[in-house]
Fold:
Amino acid sequence: MRPESIKKKEDEFFKDLTNSAGVKYKLTATTDIGGGIKIYSIRPDFNTYYYKTKTVKKSICLHFTVGYIKSDVASLSTKDNCVSVSYVVDRSGRIYEMFPDSEWSYHLGSSAIGGNGVMSKQSIGIEISNYGPLKLSGENLVDAYGNIYCKVSEEEFYSKQNYRGYDYYASMTDSQIAAVSALIKYLGRVHDIPMNFKSDDAPFASNAEATSFRGVFYHTNVRKDKFDWPFTPSLKAVIAKCSNELPQKEEVAADVTAASSDVSKVDAVAPELDVAEVPQVEEPKVEEKTVEEKTVIEEKPAETAVPKEPERKTQVKKPAPSSSKKATSLLDIVLSLLAQLLGGKKK
Structure:
């Protein structure tokens, strides 16, 4: 699928929150993490794709999806299958939270160095929506599904990188690089994870090295059969934004130059790379509280007023007995005096 088609699909998903399988999601919260970058917390009507158990996080793992956002979200929230990640970042720079980053789901695979369970529990997975490895087909580069991704002449869309059986990899957009970098720094602050990036994409030397690592690593560091992420200019740009240290400046500079050397190419891809274009698509609304939640809130005032009623009833009835007694005692006195007077006259 070509990049401009991917953007249209992303905007469609952002608008209606329906994945490629027709599953609808609810927007439950929006978090602004600065720089115009937001996290959109989305959920289907089930939650059986992750474990609702809080675990201590000590690292972040970067993946790419080999797909586009509608299919990415579908595969990462398969009912009754706990294989997922907390975050997915699309090419437009929108960050979707699939489940709380304090909880967990498997995301590394059974052969992961350090153990799939241990490493998945202690790391936060970030999937970058990206087609990943590309293959040369005449004048075109095709994705893993045999569809044309771009022409070889459109160098702004890919990097030439020989790595684990592939020579070409789809690039991140500028918006995506900014969003991934902001998310990594945000998670670092929240979970006290240092901006310590794995120095290369080679596998950890041992289980002990993998489980003790604190910082940011890649799927390739725990799996010899994976290829996300190779050290392309896109990954180096993310690292540079997080560490404020630009590794191999000349390579990153060359990547930027390639994207801007041909005016016609820049015009063609500007809509994908411009962060300012994202707000043009109306944001989905956060779902209101449920009826049950509202009912609980409304019932509280009535409960606090009930105990005062008996006190008011008792106070009203108290004066009645004393006034009756006074009236009776005066009548007795009058009758007694009359009896005495009448008795005196008879004598």
